[in-house]
Amino acid sequence: MAASGLEPALELEHVESHLHPEPSYDVEAHPKPTGLEEIWRFTPLKRLRGLLDGPASAAKLALTEELPEGASLSAISRDEAKALGGIAPLDRLAALAVENAPEASLLSIDGELDAPVRLNWSGTASDQVVWGHTVVKVAPFAKATVLLDHVGSATYGSTVTYLVGDGAQLTVISLADWEDDAVHAVQNGVSVGRDAQVRFFEFTLGGDLVRSSTNVDYRGTGGSAELFGVYFADAGQHLEHRQFVDHTAPKTRSNVVYKGALQGQDAHTVWIGNVLIRKVAEGIETFEQNDNLVLTDGAKADSVPNLEIETGEIAGAGHASTTGRFDDEHLFYLQSRGIEETEARRLVVHGFFNDIIRRIGVEDLQERLTSAIEDELATVVGRLES
């Protein structure tokens, strides 16, 4: 048994694919990109503010925490964090975060928690690079909700590793509510134990550039992973979300649903979804969906779903992607019942996102997200009226 309480990763045949490079903690195994590589071609490298150069830094973001009984937070060394296992870095930024973080933070969860764990990282300046490495270790049959909240100004490269024990139930809510000058690159690596259930929510509302990669593998049969995302890009923002679900065990399940809205000149969102179904992953079920709502001229959404299937013995697999403007029929229906156009547009956008927000189950956070979307919509209305 691995130190994390998970089964060790299965010895799997190497798959040649430009969509998911081989994981490695070695920074040199991830050459500095040129922008021509498939996993980098959408990212404006110059706007990463030198993160790819990997400057060492002892700087840290301010961290506050709320830890209910059954949860503990401690500092561990880089080597101790690696020894716990999990998904190694799949790109240079993630490897640099592990290598350069002054120390790693270990969040340990045991039992059924009666309140969410809340970790809040806050930055005060964007002109200094900060590196972070966090490991979330969930004991077998534990049940917990974890909120990771990011606010303020920063240039931040981070890796978060989730080790979800057999039979555990984990809900993660990762919120990027940065100021407009922030840059954040993060790899989330989620290893799902036998019969474990993971729900991973990602909400990206702020920042100049946010690049988030969420990778999932399975350490036993019967595991389930649901990935949900909401993002809202304003003028000039680049928000990029990448998912790689690696079905490494039979009878596992995954479901990915990300929804985004864009408004303003040069607002740009990128969603890349990739599911790999290995030869050993018989009887799995997977679906991925990305929907984008373009609210004004000058905004651009890129959406690329992928399926790589190595066995025909599966329960089901599919993907869907849509990008479009307001549904004229919805607007007409609302306006025909006396609702003004601006209010009708607001209601359509809220309905677009509400299906995901209502699933969170944390009331104060749901209210905060609804309010943040309302603020974004006020900007849209102002542009449409001007």
Automatic annotation (TrEMBL):
Domain of life: Bacteria
SUPFAM superfamilies (alphabetical): Stabilizer of iron transporter SufD
A Pfam cross-reference name: SUFBD_core
Cited InterPro entries: Fe-S_cluster_assembly_SufBD, SUF_FeS_clus_asmbl_SufBD_core, SUF_FeS_clus_asmbl_SufBD_sf, SUF_FeS_clus_asmbl_SufD
Domain SUF system FeS cluster assembly SufBD core: 125-352
GO biological process: iron-sulfur cluster assembly
PANTHER family cross-referenced by the UniProt entry: PROTEIN ABCI7, CHLOROPLASTIC (PTHR43575)
Family: Belongs to the iron-sulfur cluster assembly SufBD family.
Name of the protein: Fe-S cluster assembly protein SufD
